[in-house]
Amino acid sequence: MPRSSSSRRANKWARPHRELGASLNSVPRAAEGPDGTWVVQQVRGSSSGKVYTCPGCLQDLPARMDHIVAWRSEEEFGFNTGVGARRHWHRACFRSRPPR
Predict the structure, then answer these.
(1) What stretches of the chain adopt beta strand conformation (E)?
(2) Which contacts of 57-66 are long-range, i.e. CB under 8 A and separated by 24 or more positions?
(3) How far apart, in Å, are the Cα atoms of 77 and each of 26, 47, 73?
(4) CB 65 within 8 A of CB 82
(5) How confident is the model at residue 89, as a pLDDT?
(6) CA-based max dimension of the chain
(7) Measured between alpha carbons, how far is 12 from 49 in angstroms, rounded to an integer?
(8) Helix (H, G, I), strand (E, B), or coil: what is residue 86?
(9) In whole angstroms, what is the distance from residue 65 CA to residue 31 CA?
């Protein structure tokens, strides 16, 4: 039986982009470290089903875990850097990252 067009899920690529902090759970803050200044946001776990790769340990990081989203503030736009520069880190991996 064919499905009616009203029962189809909306295409996520056709939706407008969300603001950078829209799905994150804290206000971005600057964090100084031996490897420079980072913009950091704490993220509570969600049931989105996504899996990220932590740049610290290169292991899977399921979205259901609390974690950190961070990017370097020295990037071209700093606090306003786009989604492409964000990285999802395990909290321990971000805290123990080596200097540049």
Answers:
(1) 29-33, 36-43, 51-53, 60-62, 67-72, 87-89
(2) 57/90, 57/93, 59/90, 61/88, 61/89, 61/90, 65/90, 66/42, 66/91
(3) 20, 30, 7
(4) no
(5) 95
(6) 61
(7) 15
(8) coil
(9) 21
Residue pointed to by tokens 């071209």? 76
Residue 55: CA count within 13 A, CB half-sphere: 12
d(CA 97, CA 100) in angstroms, rounded, equals 9
Classified as helix, coil or strand, 72 is: strand
pLDDT (0 to 100) of residue 56 = 94
pTM assigned to the model: 0.66
- What's the rounded Cα separation, in Å, for the pair 15 and 34? 39
Walk along the chain (100 residues) and give the pLDDT tens digit of each residue: 555 555 677 776 676 655 554 455 677 888 888 888 888 999 999 888 899 999 999 999 999 999 999 988 775 555 565 567 889 999 999 999 887 6
